[in-house]
Amino acid sequence: MNRQQLEKRVIEIANKTLQEKHYVSCVDILLGIGWLQPVRVNDWRKGRLPYLEQAVQANLNKLSYAMKCFRQWANKCGLKPSETKYLARTRGQKRELRFSESGNPAIEKAYRTHYISPVLSQKKQENLKTKLDKPPEHVVFCILKESTCEQCKEMLHKGSFLYTEQDKALCMKCSGFDELVYLPAGNAKLTRRAKQYSKSYAVVVWFSRARKRYERQGLLVEESALKRAEDEVNVDYHNMKEEGNI
Length: 246
Prior knowledge:
43% helix; three-stranded antiparallel sheet; single chain; alpha+beta; 2 domains
């Protein structure tokens, strides 16, 4: 792909992404070109890669030119630049992810900058930025076969919960989620409120062999948050019943 073809491809991807999401990022462009695979982005998000450029399948000259074309397109379209936090999906203290090998602040800022459509209202732009700045959700797996916690060596039986960090399988105690309680999916209002009130939570998934994908099964939330959510949902139910809405 020569420079003219690369520029055309970058603009095509940027326009398509903007139409779909109302914003575009450098990661979107790299994924669209095919220089970056989603699984490698996920590895980076989980802290398995020291920096994202390590997973990019293009030399530095091509990469720099593609990013230059992207920024020029964004400026020409009058998009609003918005610096976004990229936080690792790890336990404990939040850690910012690195994009480049050098870690140069100017390069890191260029990668972190998203370009937002000016047609969005100010309120929607603020909501979008809040959403993009959120760290990825913690994911806990409901295992389909026996495993072992790599930290305490406890046997984990089929149906147990397991958390992975940097390719290490951890039980709930070693991962710090042992004080959370399981809330199965099914009641959207209860799930939404329990998640809202819980300072710490994790999404529970399991692998569907039939569909060949991970599917959401519920949440791990703080017990006090679940109790508060249950009380509120019960009050709402009784109020609706008294008003004849049920």
